[in-house]
Amino acid sequence: MKDTAEKILRRIEQCRDHSPVLVFDLDSTLYDIYERGQVIFREAVASFPALGPVLQKLAKQRIGWDFLADFRRAGLTDEAQLQAIHAFWQERFFSDAYHVHDRPMPGAVNFVNRLHDAGAIVCYLTGRDWPNMKTGTVASLRRFGFPFGTDRVRLLMKNSQKQPDADHKRAAIAEIRRLGEVIAAFDNEPELVNLFFDSFPGALVVWIDSIHSPTAVVPYPAIFRLHDFEMNDDD
After folding, report:
1. What is the DSSP letter of 27?
2. Rounded distance, CA 32 to CA 107, Å?
3. What are the sequence ranges of the domains in the chain?
4. Which fold has domain 2-33+102-226?
5. Rounded CA separation 69/176 (Å)
6. What distance in Å separates the CA atoms of residue 180 and residue 6, rounded to the nearest whole number?
7. Is the dihedral of CA 22, 111, 98, 195 positive or negative?
8. Angle between the 108-117 and 2-14 helix axes, to the nearest 10 degrees?
9. Residues paired with 180 in a beta bridge
10. Do the bridges between strand 121-129 and strand 153-158 make them parallel or antiparallel, or are there none, so unpaired?
11. Structure confidence by residue, pLDDT tens digits, 49-101
12. Cα–Cα separations (whole angstroms), residue 163 to 44, 130, 158, 190
């Protein structure tokens, strides 16, 4: 990450007259959202007692993006109950109330602030939606000290939870270009870092290899791969 940060800082200085822009996803990119899901699963046990032994069985491993598949492998095979658990999770996971359980990825707050302080426009491009998640998102950004509330910060969210993340981010490309010259973009989804690579020629595109949806898509070879934002030597 040291090398990545230095490259971006040099680009900010070179592009200062062209409004340098940085694009950051939130969930599983700037934020570790694992505990948000875990809290919901623990709450779900009261309504779905069969989930309790499953969570105990999975306690020593990290439940993945496709948590229903993990639950099936751990012995919960009643599809009606699995779908009811998913609905319970979805109602809470995509809501303001549960953002309190998110934590910044290691080094993320310092990294984003360093680049914003150097003169970059920070654009948070997230799959969260305005109606259900704006209040919690803004509160979380402020609480942890991410740049927010200045004329060099933008928060682009979906208008509806039902809109696919990829469609939302693809539609936002033109708006982001109007902000200035995109010099770097970060996301945890392989499909989306490839989209950024194609959409922002010359930008440094970084795949945050944390957790992502099941996909056959792989990031382009030219895309950088990092696990977090700690100022260690890059991979």
Report:
1. B
2. 12
3. 2-33+102-226, 34-99
4. Rossmann fold (3.40.50)
5. 36
6. 20
7. positive
8. 20
9. none
10. parallel
11. 999 999 999 988 888 889 999 999 999 999 999 999 999 999 999 999 999 99
12. 26, 12, 7, 18
